[in-house]
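Predicting holo structure, zinc ion bound.
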Amino acid sequence: MPATLVAEHVNPIASSVPAVSIEDLSNGERAVALYASDLPDGYRYKRGDDAQLVSWIIQGAKRMGLDRLRRTAALAAGFHLSRQAKRVTAEQTRAHAERFPKVRRDRRTGELAALVTLYAPVSDEARERGLQYLMDGPCPECGDTRQVWRSWCVDVNADWYEEGYGPCFLCGGAA
Ligand SMILES: [Zn+2]
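Done. Tokens:
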């Protein structure tokens, strides 16, 4: 966008900080960026605050830097996934609490990010990134062996089941 280029040209600080646009951030990254921003604790959403929320997200993203923001969001996604599967390890709980010490703010920024994502689209690349996740320590389900013993139904009428190792459902079995 020409406006961005002009701003970078006249402002030497802006050229050292990579431009961040809201579309380039996944929903999870938006939540983490909000947490890192000046968003006040106890903030209450009002109609018309959307632009303010976006500017907090951009502020938080710049404050953290994109690499750290992406990694933190991936770890948060791994935590949420493990929690959904009721497999959270003590290590994950400790690491998540260290990254997000304010429990209420953590929950609230997740809600606010979802609200922003209702009207601010996520680019395909950011959406793809939003599906990836990282775990603190080994995978809580398979311990990083990437495989779990499971049984599956081959034919329900014949009551035919087979057992064997399959890819871990939690980490997806990816190396
Ligand atoms: Zn696993």
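The mean pLDDT is 88.
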